């Protein structure tokens, strides 16, 4: 059966019936990131002429592990946390992707995040498939030692399916190099070998790579620069708004500030700051905490919703999913939206922004700098020979520019938006690898 004959029911009833069986999908269903990514994969495969079985293979992860992690809390009680690890497709190579610690982590979200990782790895041409992990927890309410016990417990729980040649985790929302270090240590104990290649985003002294901490933002900065050239926007003096002030958002604000742009708005989970004359980025960087929180220090804040609608040239969502929806897409005033976050714009909003002539650089391209330098870290760990920061930056620059160009050209020649173009580029390698392996 051809891709254009794929039944609507194969997409989980994307058009009419929600996953919960409702005829009228509620807002949560409409913003179901797994179903949205399946819709675009379906379209991409259709455009590329792949048969139905390719969609059947790629619409869900090959493997999904749910684990219970008992953790002794500091007060002596035991709390049992739920964790997930999804491995989307390992036809190309081991799976790769971050681990998220967040109270709103769900199984569906982790599945979608693993699919996005496969697409990213295809886009920047890494020898990986996509994986992703998550633990339902709020690290902001946990002590240092509780976090250590949770991180080690998670690795023990998933140890059978991960490893340097199977599935290689990394940081994501509310996880950092310290958590990667505990996880690497725990895995090394289980493996009875020092195994730096088990995980990336480690501290430099444990085999981390130069440039990994800032890599996601560096990749986004390169995409902004390339997109600005296409739109004839001068970066010097351009007004930039960044949602999220964590790993991705804070480095991004710094890089854009250093490039001469004016950062007029930033936000965190608690609110947003706005100054039309430009915020003092260095001061904010100095004052933010390890969870990317800074707005609590100020009284005159605005909301995240107001932030997204500020008048600016460049808008960078760098926090969480479903921030630009059909409700606010008409009010976005930026000329370019570059997605540092995974899944910040719904499909309806993508359509609205594209129709309005706003250039949207999608997550699977824009945020691929992180996994690219993670790959460099893994290569360095495997060969035991380490590169300078300049070498890493030079290689990242080449990868990102090439990937941006290939997706921009695909969008132009196939007359599709950048998101669909990115999916078309990203899905091809894993589809071909699955075919050569004889899976489809
Ligand atoms: N860290 C990495 O290497 C990569 C991260 N990403 C994506 O970038 C996004 C941000 O990740 P990181 O910067 O690593 O996380 P982080 O944990 O360092 O920072 C997250 C930021 O988002 C804010 N935030 C959380 N919930 C929010 C909400 N409901 N509304 C507004 N802001 C909120 C936090 O306050 C914080 O400022 C995520 O979508 C992540 O998946 C993508 C590629 C790689
Ligand atoms: O660095 C990595 O391996 C994965 C980063 C990640 O989780 C992401 O790109 O969403």
Structure characteristics:
440 residues; alpha/beta; Rossmann fold; six-stranded mixed beta sheet; globular; binds 1,4-dihydronicotinamide adenine dinucleotide
Low-confidence regions: 1-27
Mean pLDDT: 93
Return the structural class. alpha/beta
Identify the CATH homologous superfamily of the domain at 215-361.
NAD(P)-binding Rossmann-like Domain
Largest sheet: 6 strands, mixed
- What is the helix fraction of residues, given as a range? 40-55%
Give the class-level CATH name of the domain at 215-361.
Answer: Alpha Beta
Widest sheet: strand order? 8-7-6-9-10-11
- Morphology call: globular
CATH topology of the domain at 215-361: the name is Rossmann fold
Global Rg: 21 Å
* CATH architectural name of the domain at 215-361: 3-Layer(aba) Sandwich
Discrete helix count = 15
**How many E strands?**
11
Portion in beta strands: 15-25%
* Amino- and carboxy-terminal Cα gap: 13 Å
- Ions, cofactors and other bound molecules: 1,4-dihydronicotinamide adenine dinucleotide, 2-oxoglutaric acid
SSE topology:
Blueprint: H1 27-30, H2 33-48, H3 52-58, E1 63-72, E2 78-87, E3 95-102, H4 107-123, E4 129-136, H5 144-158, E5 167-171, H6 177-191, H7 215-231, E6 239-243, H8 247-258, E7 262-268, E8 271-274, H9 281-287, H10 304-308, E9 314-317, E10 336-338, H11 347-355, E11 359-361, H12 363-366, H13 369-383, H14 389-414, H15 418-436
Parallel strand pairs: 3-4, 3-5, 6-7, 6-9, 9-10, 10-11
Antiparallel strand pairs: 1-2, 2-4, 7-8
The structure holds 1,4-dihydronicotinamide adenine dinucleotide and 2-oxoglutaric acid.
């Amino acid at each position: 059966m051809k891709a254009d004959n794929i039944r609507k029911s194969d997409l989980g009833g994307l058009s009419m019936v929600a996953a919960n069986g409702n005829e009228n999908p509620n807002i949560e269903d409409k913003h179901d990131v797994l179903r949205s990514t399946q819709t675009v994969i379906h379209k991409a495969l259709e455009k590329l002429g792949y048969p139905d079985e390719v969609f059947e293979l790629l619409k869900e992860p090959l493997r999904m592990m749910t684990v219970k992690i008992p953790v002794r809390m500091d007060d002596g009680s035991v709390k049992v946390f739920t964790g997930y690890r999804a491995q989307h497709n390992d036809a190309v190579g081991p799976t790769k992707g971050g681990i998220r610690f967040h109270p709103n982590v769900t199984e569906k979200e982790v599945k979608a995040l693993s699919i996005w990782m496969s697409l990213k790895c295809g886009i920047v041409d890494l020898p990986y498939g996509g994986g992703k992990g998550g633990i339902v927890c709020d690290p902001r309410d946990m002590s240092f030692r509780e976090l250590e016990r949770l991180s080690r417990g998670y690795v023990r729980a998933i140890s059978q399916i991960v490893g340097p040649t199977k599935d290689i985790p990394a940081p994501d929302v509310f996880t950092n190099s310290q958590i990667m270090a505990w996880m690497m240590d725990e895995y090394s104990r289980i493996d009875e070998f020092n195994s730096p290649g088990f995980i990336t985003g480690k501290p430099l002294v444990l085999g981390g790579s130069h440039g990994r901490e800032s890599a996601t933002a560096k990749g986004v900065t390169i995409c902004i620069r390339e997109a600005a050239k296409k739109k004839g926007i001068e970066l010097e003096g351009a007004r930039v708004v960044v949602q999220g002030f964590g790993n991705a958002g804070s480095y991004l604000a710094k890089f854009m500030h250093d490039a001469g742009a004016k950062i007029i708005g930033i936000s965190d989970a608690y609110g947003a700051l706005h100054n039309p004359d430009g915020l003092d980025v260095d001061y904010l960087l100095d004052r933010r905490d390890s969870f990317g929180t800074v707005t609590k220090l100020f009284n005159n804040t605005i909301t995240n919703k107001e932030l997204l609608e500020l008048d600016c040239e460049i808008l960078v969502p760098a926090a969480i999913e479903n921030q630009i929806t059909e409700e606010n897409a008409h009010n976005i005033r930026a000329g370019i939206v570059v997605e540092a976050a995974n899944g910040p714009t719904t499909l309806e909003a993508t359509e609205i922004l594209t129709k309005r002539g706003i250039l949207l650089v999608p997550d699977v391209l824009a945020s691929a700098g992180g996994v690219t330098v993670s790959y460099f870290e893994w290569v360095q760990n495997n060969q035991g020979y380490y590169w300078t920061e300049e070498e890493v930056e030079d290689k990242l620059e080449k990868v990102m520019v090439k990937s941006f160009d290939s997706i921009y050209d695909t969008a132009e020649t196939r007359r599709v938006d950048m998101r669909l173009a990115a999916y078309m580029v990203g899905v091809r390698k894993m589809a071909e690898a699955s075919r050569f392996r004889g899976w489809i």
